[in-house]
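Lab notebook: predicted structure, single chain.

Context: the supervisor wants predicted structures on file for every construct in the current expression panel, including those that have not yet been purified. This is the next one on the list. No modifications to the sequence; it matches the entry in the shared construct table.
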Amino acid sequence: MGGIIVNTEYPKVFISYAWSRQKTQDDVLELAQRLRYDGIDVVLDKWDFKEGHDKYAFMERCVTDENINRVLIICDKAYQERADGRQGGVGDETVVISSEVYGHMQQTKFVPLIFERDETNNPFMPAYLKSRKYVDFSDETNFEKSYEELLRILYNMPVNKKPKLGKKTTWLQDDINHNELNILVKSLKNGATESLKKYQSICTRFIDTFINLLNDVRFKNDQFNAEELVKKISSLKPIRDVYFDFLEVILESEFFSIHFITNFFEKIYNEVGIIEKGSYTQSTFEYYDFFRWESFIGTIAILLHYEKYEEVYKVLNHTYFLRENSFINSRSIPCKFSKFRVPCHTLEFDYQKINQTRYFSYTAQLLTEREKMPVLTKQLFAETDLLLYQLSTIFLCDESKSLPIFGKWFPTMYPYVKRKDLWIKLQSKSFCEKILSLFGVKTITELKLSISKAIYDNSIRYSGAWESAPNILSYISIEQIATLN
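Prediction complete. Output recorded below exactly as produced.
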């Protein structure tokens, strides 16, 4: 039997093990030394148990001392036999340890370390520890992985940390039944698409079902207020999230095509919120404007997250044929992606006035509260919104000259962007080569020519804002591009 204790300023451990085979003693000594190197102040009986000390008192104090954080029990064949047979020093320790284990079933103080297995590969463990979770050191080839697991236990720093408790969601009471959408996503995810025809059929059904659900939640009349508008936007979050799930699933398919994305946005623009008769204002369907805007930003964000740069270029340079107005007989006109960015006047003015808020943009603030973890964070939404503006100055530079400022892609969320080095990686030649397809070019020379259009415009700002929205050349000069390996 032997033991380890530690200094009070560091994590404290006691190791219970059997003095049997020499290998076990050597391994325990090596483990003790390794722990000391990693900040655990280990005191080993071979170092500190002096002549004249009472061995049983030393062991009992180490097991029961409240200042000892963990008791590490080295489990091999000899330890199991002596513990179950109550033999020798291990038997004495077992009496004390087992009473602690059985008396405090919820405690985590005692951690078995498996050092040996039997001929059927079952770990040697005392009977009173059979139900305990252990760290496996029996396979020397996996020592480093096991050692890291042990260190994380001692420092209470697990790999999978329990997330913080968030706020109660605002859409729990929504009456939108999106079960069919979830079933279709699961069908795609489970690989129930052995052919392109079936894959396209499920995707088409998803989009059609999605359109029907969006139309089902429209206001019954044109009379609404800002508070109801915010509630309506909140009720749309669950089906928005299902769309993002759908997008992530189809991106993994060999049948994926940007047609699924461009077709989706044409349909939610052309087939949602149609007026058959009567009058309307732009604010009538502002919740649909918000929905299309955030869904488009989220789509590009997901594509960027998975480094689908060529797909981003195609989506942003696609010509969308969108209805000219909301009446049923409206004609379609060719448009670029900036059409999906529509200012939400009710949110920006009426809601802020009623609630006495002073955001540069309540539209932007609302989206920051609609994250979809782990991918769609507040920062990714904001950075993607800014990137859409930056790329629009390149892709729409010729067409946008005749458009008013809100006809371009205005980066509504730019005040929320925290990073000051979004494009600093353009100094790297390898990074430039990696994102050539994002700009639709094939050489770094062409890339530089494309980025040369992304000039800082001081007018792209909120009224009263100190800073304007940065463009790509706000971060880096043309001369710096691709100068590093």
